[in-house]
Design a protein that fits this description.
68 residues; alpha+beta; TTHA1013/TTHA0281-like; 1 helix; 2-oxoisovalerate dehydrogenase
C-alpha cells in the first residue's frame, strides 16, 4: 500500500474528526494542525513498519447550509 486516505469533517461538538477509508483508523482533534499530528500517529500505530504507507492523503469536507 502506498497511500492511506482520510475523510475529515467538522465535529458537531467542535473540532474535527478523521476516518480512514478502507482501514479501521479514527482520530479527532480541536484544530487541523493537531489533527494532522494525530493522523500521523494513528497511521504509525496501525501499520507494521514494512506495510507503512508512504503517503497520507487528507480530504476535508465542509458542509454549508443556505436558506432561500
Amino acid at each position: 500500500m502506498n497511500e492511506v486516505f482520510f475523510l475529515v469533517e467538522e465535529s458537531l461538538e467542535g473540532g474535527y474528526v478523521a476516518k480512514a477509508l478502507g482501514e479501521s483508523i479514527f482520530t479527532e482533534a480541536e484544530s487541523m494542525d493537531e489533527l494532522r499530528i494525530n493522523i500521523k500517529e494513528a497511521v504509525l500505530c496501525h501499520f507494521d513498519e514494512d506495510k507503512l504507507p508512504k503517503i497520507i492523503r487528507i480530504h476535508s469536507v465542509k458542509e454549508e447550509l443556505l436558506t432561500v
